[in-house]
Amino acid sequence: MSAIGLTSAAWLAHRHANLATDDPLADAATATSAAPAQDAASQAASAAPASESEPAFRVETAVVEHSFSEAAQRLGLDAATTARLARAFSGRLDFRRDLQRGSEIRFVFRNDTNGADGANGASDARDTDDVSPANAGASQNASSSDDTPVAIRISNGNVSHDLFLYRNLAGKAFYYCADGHAAAPSFLRYPVKFTRVSSYFSLRRLDPVTHRVQPHEGVDLAAPVGTPVHATARGTVTFAGWQTGYGKVVKLENFGPYSTTFAHLSRFAKHLKVGQTVSKGQVIGYVGATGWATGPHLHYEVHVDQVAQDPLTVDLPHRDPLLGEDKQRFAQQVALIDPLL
């Protein structure tokens, strides 16, 4: 049995009047106009005002027993939102490896149910990180703003990682770190769900097949045959075929100076062809042991300016940080919500 600690805390945030109408995280209840004293007294006798009966935010806490997804879903988060949060943290945490039993996760939710804040449209967003209503399906229900955390903290011992949801002036909603930098990288760190790293990046490695010392310009990620392999970033297929040593291999030209290689595949994704544009996270092939391989694994390479880099440590590009008015608005929201975490 999983023991999930669940606590709920209430918090009422009073904002300045000039922020109440345009802040995607501001509570609608705080923007109501003041009533005369005698009206307030009569209202209190019959029903408490919205600002007293329903606080702007609620905080819920879960303690990890087995996995992040289990903890999140026990608090009512759906699978799509859980996956989106995993992607947002992917540049900083690997949930399968970095989370430990006893790690604490704190979510801040809005209590607003009018669907007008920066978190609605989350569950049907087409972009993997964009949670703006422009990317939402028409069936979005009114309570979805309750289902998307406006802030989250994951604590591993003395180390904490925080993310905050913010809709920028262009209408796009993403998770950001407290300093205004986008949380989700433009690159995924890992292209496959692997069981272990079977061979690391090295400039001098004794090749187990050729028995010669030579560079190993990638990392080998062991996984069962047939495990889906995903593009780690948007790119164009420059090669999909057979190469000596690599076996069945896919090569992508990504944006800027980046390119990636995926080797020893058992087969390619259906209809994959040279010149095709693929998106981040798209399946491009399946793990195998073709070419010079001693067992099923994915050989994965990242090149920057045509120079091989260690895929496990290379700096990954992120979206541009918030600037100007967006940065100021975001800082105000962080100041409002951070004390809840």
Which CATH architecture of the largest domain would you pick? Roll
Number of domains: 2
The residue ranges in which pLDDT falls below 50 over 5 or more consecutive positions are 1-51, 113-128, 130-145
How many distinct beta strands? 18
| Approximate shape | elongated
Distance between the termini: 27 Å
Order of H and E elements? EHHHEHHHEHEEEEEEEEEEEEEEEH
Proportion of strand residues: 25-35%
User: How is the main sheet built?
Assistant: 10 strands, antiparallel
- How many DSSP helices? 8
Pfam family, one: Peptidase_M23
InterPro entries: Cell_wall_metabolism_enzyme, Dup_hybrid_motif, M23ase_b-sheet_dom
Enzyme class: hydrolase
Protein name: M23 family metallopeptidase
Brief write-up:
The chain is of the alpha+beta class and 341 residues long. It is built from 8 helices and 18 strands. It has helices spanning 17-20, 37-46, 50-53, 68-74, 79-88, 95-98, 144-147, 324-337, and strands spanning 8-11, 57-63, 104-110, 151-156, 159-167, 173-176, 196-199, 202-206, 213-216, 219-222, 228-230, 235-243, 247-254, 258-268, 277-278, 283-287, 297-304, 307-309.
